[in-house]
Design brief:
It is a single chain. By secondary structure, this protein is of the alpha+beta class. It folds into two domains: about 40 residues; about 80 residues, OB fold (Dihydrolipoamide Acetyltransferase, E2P), CATH 2.40.50.660. It starts with 7 loop residues before the first helix and ends with a strand. InterPro entries: DUF2500 (IPR019635).
Length: about 120
């Protein structure tokens, strides 16, 4: 008897369906949990220095022709506070372009959510 006989296909389909639904549920719950954590965190403004910047680019291929390809870019900035602790926050493209390594200023954030950075001094 082969794997696809006697309900094997239905079993494989059910397992794959449950994996997809489980993954979707996990990502959704993780996002809601992070959103709730950020909303419950205090909004803090601290002296900070921009120490590094990075981009994460992912490419998406849709079908066999490359006419439907797309990409997504996510921007991150690492700040260092007076205690020496570092904090990497996701920022939008405009903020990413405006921030320069070694900038010093006041960073406002809430949990893992970037709010703003106000430059108080030019870079060294």
């Amino acid at each position: 008897m082969g794997l696809l006989e006697n309900g094997g296909f239905e079993t494989m389909f059910t397992i794959m369906f449950m994996l997809v639904v489980g993954t979707f549920a996990f990502v959704l719950i993780k996002g809601i949990t992070q959103w709730h954590y950020n909303n419950q965190s205090p909004r803090l403004t601290v002296q900070a220095k921009v120490v590094s910047k990075r981009m994460d680019v992912s490419y998406h291929h849709h079908g066999d022709d490359h006419m439907m390809d797309s990409s997504s870019t996510f921007y991150y900035v690492t700040f260092e506070v007076k205690s020496g602790d570092r904090l990497e926050l996701a920022v939008n493209g405009k903020e990413y372009g405006m921030l320069v390594e070694n900038d010093i200023g006041e960073l406002t954030f809430q949990g893992t959510r970037y709010i703003e950075f106000v430059r108080t001094r030019e870079k060294d």
